[in-house]
Write the structure tokens for this entry.
Amino acid sequence: MRVIAIAVVSENGVIGDGKDQPFKFGEDWARFKATTMGHPIIVGRHTHEAIGGYLPGRTTIVVSRDPEQIELSDDPDAPSFAVGSVELALELAESLDDVCFVCGGGQVYENAWEYLTELDITQVHETAEGSVHFPEIDPEDWLLLHREPRGQFDFTRLFPITRTERLTLVPVGPDDLDDWARLYSASDLPEVPIERHRVGLEANVEHWLNDGLGYWLAKESLHDRPVGVGGVRRSKENPDGTWSLYYRFEPDSRNQGYAVEIAKAGIAALKVLDPDSELRAVLRPDNAAACAVAEKVGLLPTGETSDERGPLQVWTAVVATL
Ligand SMILES: NC(=O)c1ccc[n+]([C@@H]2O[C@H](COP(=O)([O-])OP(=O)(O)OC[C@H]3O[C@@H](n4cnc5c(N)ncnc54)[C@H](OP(=O)(O)O)[C@@H]3O)[C@@H](O)[C@H]2O)c1
């Protein structure tokens, strides 16, 4: 399940004074409503009291150490639950949907931090007074992939930076065009115009924004050097709900086990986001190295297809079994 923290955060990190939040913008509230509509939302008791009721069109899960004290709604358009921990709230949300929103306040953001898969932050260009803060966002751990300026504030989306044994995996974003183009233009591939690379990169950003996961730029952690791209993402060519495994490392960085590292990281991310889905890799049967990687991570050859360059083998598995 995608677990998305959504918050309005001032320049100094303040989100409230314990009772109310310092900023209220009509456009932001409309976006909050549209974004969370239809999904479960998790709130702490203080925030629930600050809202003063249950938001229609969403299932509200209130977290309290004494959940019995919470008065629940009898409005069928605003179902509600009260539970005794953030973990129970997430478990309940997962039984209802494949996306949930953590809506604060400070304590609940803090206690849900380790489970978050995305941040959806309205960054306000002003400081505020108040004792409740959003947790510190470490740029070593989160990449700001999307920013939509709106005058007094920006809508922003951040995604986790993943570390494997030797690689730092950073969601590929608009600033990575040169690396993206270089890694796709390795000497063994025909040259592609930069504009087509830009389109490919923008499509990858859309994957992150829409599905919560897309390809990474793989950097050797030791030298902070980009050596490849890849990971898993939903594929238009695949039947609904399936994910594709793909990677490409520059020639000097092949045969070092990096492909297995990025494939395992992709599978680990999918186990959190979408464990019941299918993962597939479409490989040339004579690409022994790629077939060996597929086998190593637990995929099985389950079908065949072809393209203009010849036959292809389809390797698949249900993510939870990997
Ligand atoms: N700017 C924004 O986007 C935004 C969003 C939301 C809220 N806010 C602001 O944030 C402030 C409220 O934040 P807050 O930190 O004071 O309170 P909060 O997180 O809303 O609620 C805290 C309460 O939630 C329960 N709780 C928290 N973690 C728990 C856990 N792990 N297990 C069980 N129960 C848990 C406890 O309830 P019990 O005491 O009942 O045990 C705790 O007292 C308000 O000013 C509000 O306006 C701002």
User: Anything to note?
Assistant: The CA atoms of residues 106 and 134 lie 6 Å apart.
